[in-house]
Amino acid sequence: MGQQIDADVKRPRFGVITGEELGTYDLLIIGSPTQQGAPLSSITILLDAIPANGLKNTRVAAFDTRHKWKFISPWGYAAPRLAKILTEKGGNLIAPPEGFLVNTTRGPLKNGELERANDWAKKLLEK
To answer: pLDDT at position 32, please?
Structure first.
């Protein structure tokens, strides 16, 4: 059997977590759908509430969900913006920002993306 991991999954839109609490985790993974090249405002509001250097000694990673366009989005994607905020708050980025493809704006993930996301998360736990 694999290693037992304790994990919390929280959604900021329900107000169940604070910016200060985010710095208490060993590994913080933040994700958001990409909307016009940016993360959801609820995510950025939460991250803005993290005190300066509040993620010091915290391993961080960022992901987004996105459509695969035939062209590169002029706005970019949410994950790189999330990663930038996390590192500006003192986090130690342990992997490049990642994007997972969706079929429509409300999902679901394209075939094979859930497995790819699972593999990505497992690799984060090894770092």
So the answer is: 94
Number of domains in the chain: 1
Q: Render pLDDT for 68-111 as a digit per residue (tens, 0 to 9).
A: 765 556 678 999 999 999 999 999 999 999 999 998 878 899 99
Q: Is residue 3 part of a domain?
A: no
The DSSP string of 59-125 is: EEEEEEEE---SS--TT--HHHHHHHHHHHTT-EE-S--EEEEBSSTT--BPTTHHHHHHHHHHHHH
Which CATH number goes with the domain that contains 86?
Answer: 3.40.50.360
Helices 78-88 and 41-48 cross at an angle (nearest 10°) of 10
Q: Do residues 10 and 39 make contact, with C-beta atoms less than 8 angstroms apart?
A: no
The structure's pTM equals 0.87
What is the C-alpha to C-alpha distance for residues 50 and 28, in angstroms, rounded to an integer?
Answer: 13
CB of 59 closer than 8 Å to CB of 91: yes
Q: Which range marks the domain in which residue 38 is found?
A: 12-125
